[in-house]
Amino acid sequence: MILIEDRTYGVRAVDPRLVDRLAAHLHGRALDADLARGVSADIDVRHALRARMLISRRSRDELASALGRLASGRTSALSNRVPPAQRSAVPELTTLREAVAGRQPVSVRGMAMVQLLVTSGAGGLYRAGNVLDRSQLRTLLAVVSRSVRDIAVG
Q1: Residue 14 forms beta bridges with which residues?
Q2: Cβ–Cβ contacts within 10 Å for residue 119, how many?
Q3: SS3 46
């Protein structure tokens, strides 16, 4: 069961169908972009399912591992196209990895942002000569750690 917003009834419980689960997986990048922009996970079943996926222990462990590889300068994370991490951003990448891997609650929005950072070919990690913006990584860490008004797991 998933709770979603309903304009008529307020909040209602929905039992996700197989088609919803498949759509949440197949349209993950678009749903991640929505969630990263701040769209509520409660807006519909697909967003709610994707939010659950993003904050699951499995997803957190995979993203933490990818961030660790990036911080160490290894070239393979969740995508084979990731160049070595910028050395100046290693402390921020390491702190972000620790927050993602930790047991504290994480925000859906923050995890969607991390997912896009690590896997999006248009992201800052993929452009040749691009320098990771350390202040943006610190802001991302703050968003990941924020759990108010977001679905969160501990």
Answers
A1: 2
A2: 20
A3: helix
